[in-house]
Design goal:
With 171 residues, the protein is mainly α. It is 87% helix and 0% strand. α1 packs antiparallel against α2, α2 runs antiparallel to α3 and α4 packs antiparallel against α5. The longest helix has 35 residues. The N and C termini lie far apart (58 Å).
């Protein structure tokens, strides 16, 4: 009965996502940041919850076989991608909150423009590092590509060090 387990898992994941959204919506009445979290994180959170629920249902309702191993590998890859999407959405919420503190529609807005530029650079850097990390994570799931994945993780670390050093002068 794996199909029934999958349907139940997906329904439970959506119910859990709806409950989390309701709690955040209650907090959003008092906070703009919570409303921004609700808007930007809803879809990636649902994706992560559905993937995890399907994975658990697969584990509990099937015997180990070749197709189960392949399906679990596909779910692992999907989870890595969805987690990167969720982390990116959370990072964008934080960056948007920082951007909202600096208005550029006022006279003598040089500092605000400078900070907005720095935040924009950090946003782009965040996207690049998350993409490289997700690609490396996916590659690490394949035994033959582990070396390439490790190399990408190392390059992401190197990119962040170089960007941090380069940003010191501009920050």
């Amino acid at each position: 009965m794996p199909i029934g387990a999958f349907v139940v898992a997906v329904v439970l994941a959506f119910v859990l996502a709806t409950l989390v959204s309701a709690v955040v919506r209650t907090a959003a009445r008092r906070s703009n940041l919570a409303m921004d979290v609700l808007k930007k994180v809803r879809q990636p959170m649902r994706a992560v919850l559905v993937i995890v629920a399907v994975w658990i249902a697969l584990r509990l309702s099937t015997e180990t076989s070749d197709w189960v191993v392949a399906a679990e590998h596909a779910l692992l890859i999907a989870l890595i991608i969805a987690a990167a999407w969720l982390i990116g959405a959370l990072a964008f919420v934080v960056e948007d909150a920082a951007l909202s503190r600096f208005r550029i529609d006022v006279p003598n807005n040089r500092h605000a423009r400078r900070v907005r530029t720095q935040i924009t650079v950090l946003r782009r850097l965040t996207v690049v590092i998350l993409a490289i990390g997700a690609i490396a994570g996916v590659l690490m799931t394949f035994p033959d590509a582990r070396t390439a994945g490790a190399t990408l993780f190392a390059s992401a670390g190197l990119i962040s060090i170089v960007a941090g050093l380069a940003a010191q002068s501009s920050l």
